[in-house]
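Researcher: Hi, I'm a grad student and pretty new to this. My advisor asked me to get structures for two proteins we've been looking at. I'm not sure of the right format, so I'll just paste the first sequence and hope you can take it from there.
Model: That works fine. Here's the first sequence with its structure tokens right after it:
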Amino acid sequence: MTVATEYEMPVFGEAVRQFGGFLAGQGRSSDLLWVFREDVCWRNQQLLVKIPAPEENARHVESLYNLGVNRGLGVRLDVLCLLGSHPCCYVWLPSDEEDASYAMLSGLKLSVPTEPMVAQAVESALLWRVYKRLERGEAFKGIVEQVPLRAG
């Protein structure tokens, strides 16, 4: 996993610009797709992403980022997977100081796996509901468990 850390917290737009530059420096596209837990699914060891992503995701990402800045525990912008060449990204916030310490988080941390998983797109709303219902029965939900909920 490749990681870059900054110690001052930039405003959201600058943080996204830095993240895009960081990803470009890692040979990845800077055309970000922001996702929340509601937009991703782990089924039969396959990562699925509902497209199109809701338009309000960008607004929720900014709110989550600003919450992290105000809490003062740090913020991590991370890549979950690739959908085609597009990085599917999310904001991760530590729950407390101990969580931040374990994550070695202070300030802004930018992260991308060395070999991100490649996800499969799901365009059908009906098929998406089926996948999400089946996912509930899975004991292990893969890497999607670290992605925050849009709803809270």
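Researcher: Oh nice, that was easy. Here's the second one.
Model: And its structure:
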Amino acid sequence: MAVPGVLAATPVRAGVRASAARAAAIDPDLLRRAREAFERHADQIVHKDLVAIADYGLHSSTPRFHLYEPEARRLQSFRVAHGKGSDPRHTGYLQSFSDRPGSAASSEGAYLTGEHYSGQHGASQRLVGLDAENQNAMDRAIVIHGAWYCEPSMVTNTGKLGRSEGCFAFSAADAATVLARLSPGHLLFSSRA
């Protein structure tokens, strides 16, 4: 591994807060694959203090987007939407990944966080796909942003979040926290356990 201790395969502690009643944990196999992605792309990763991991094997009502601090082994988890094309029947579970333009699906793989900007969803952050499975991320405008369909009331009323066009969409409060913590040059790894 490029940096000792980064993404250590030991248990993590629940962090500051989770966006649901119970604290989440990262699946060990998913953590291992995130560590492998970190090692593959270490030369492009500027900031190694924090790694984002999206576990799309979990239901959208579950905090499944993790900000993990490897050195402290601290975890902060949030609800995140997946793409419409990944869940056509809107079950709340991701059925498949796609990087095809126009698919409105979530893509799997490693991303590098890019610049912050203000767009149609307000404060947002660009993502650069680092793997063959998500190489179209920039062309598809796959970003991090807040969305009305990710507010807690959505889960209360429907039992699940709404769906994005493939972006990592959060409630307004969670998006603000995620954007504040993920400066350009961090790794975001997206997959399912």
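Researcher: Is there anything I should tell my advisor about the second?
Model: You could mention this: Residues 28-40 form the longest helix (13 residues).
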